[in-house]
Amino acid sequence: MRGVTGRLMLLDTASLYFRAYFGVPDSVRAPDGTPVNAVRGLLDFIDRLVKDHRPDQLVACMDADWRPHWRVELIPSYKAHRVAEERAAGPDEEEVPDTLSPQVPVIEAVLDAVGIARVGVAGYEADDVIGTFTARAEGPVDIVTGDRDLYQLVDDARGVRVLYPLKGVGTLQLTDETWLRGKYGVDGSGYADLALLRGDPSDGLPGVPGVGEKTAAKLLAEYGDLAGIMAAVEDRRSKLTPTQRRRLDESRPYLAVAPKVVRVADDAPLPDVTTALPRSPHDPVELQALATRWGLGGSLERLLTTLAV
């Protein structure tokens, strides 16, 4: 990674192309009839994001491994319900809609030809790539994602915020620490503790039985962080109810490993890439071939016009 000092925009790419896939009709097709709704939808998303927020640097962060083994070793249920096929070597295959899977390589090829940095790291999720870029950035960071897990990276002092799409990317929730405190009663650094206490069925995280979002927020407000809560379990003078104390005590094996699973890594071995916003296509010949083959039309043209400004 080369020096990033201007405003850096990090795209949770899979989160965005899934939204594009479900938000753009599958009647949007290539000349041969192949659906390209996710491809064109993602290009439209990026165009709008660059127009509205004018980042200096842009990275499309990818899931080289959507279910890393080191997380599964700690919590075997992690994302287990989304496995389409287990593989002895390499990442398990994720359950993805039939007409979306063929579009992912097209998305990757188009991003490469345009010259938008595309980064995935073996053994890490896109969240971890985002966390590592964020940790290394010297300027403000905008993280574009539909995944609330990344709220843990919000940091007003460093200018790190999450842009959470509410409707396409034209309507974004600008998530800073003020918003987090109003919604959850925690700041960015406290969100991971709230998430692991609450659990998340969509990620296969059981959480602590009987501890939902509101109870988790109250416990964190009272005791500060997970370590403070577990100290309160030991302290018979604390205000924990007998049921809370018992459930937290019984959840010790889960709570001992959950922080490593839930917290985004900030030490993924990033490749040395140029993150500057491309003003002209990196490979115009290949890009023209892709545009013709897949019928990318106005979506690609609008993006290239926006990048050239």
Over the alpha carbons, how many angstroms does the gyration radius reach?
21 Å
Alpha plus pi helix count: 13
- Indicate the percent of residues in helices: 40-55%
Biggest sheet strand order reads: 5-2-1-6-7-8
Shape: globular
Strand content: 5-15%
The N- and C-terminal alpha carbons lie at a distance of 25 Å
Mean pLDDT: 94
Instruction: Briefly note the structural class of the backbone.
Output: alpha/beta
Order of helices and strands: EHHEHEEHEHEEEHHHHHHHH
Report the uncertain regions.
none
Tally of strands:
8
Please outline the major beta sheet: 6 strands, mixed
Describe this structure in words.
Helices cover 45% and strands 11% of the residues. It has 309 residues and is of the alpha/beta class. A 6-stranded mixed β-sheet has the order 5-2-1-6-7-8. Strands 3-4 form a two-stranded antiparallel ribbon. A hairpin with a 3-residue loop joins β7 (160-167) and β8 (171-175). α4 runs antiparallel to α12 and α7 (188-198) packs across α11. The model has no long low-confidence stretch (mean pLDDT 94).
Summarize the structure.
The chain is globular, with a radius of gyration of 21 Å. It is 45% helix and 11% strand. It contains 13 helices and eight strands.
